[in-house]
Amino acid sequence: MLLKPINGLLLVICSTFCISASAASLRDPTLPGSGVIVASNSAASVSKTMTLNSVVVKHNSAFAVINGQIYKQGQRVNGVKIMKIDEDTVSLADGRKLKMFEAIIEIKGQ
Question: Which keywords does this Swiss-Prot/TrEMBL entry list (predicted)?
Answer without folding.
Answer: Signal
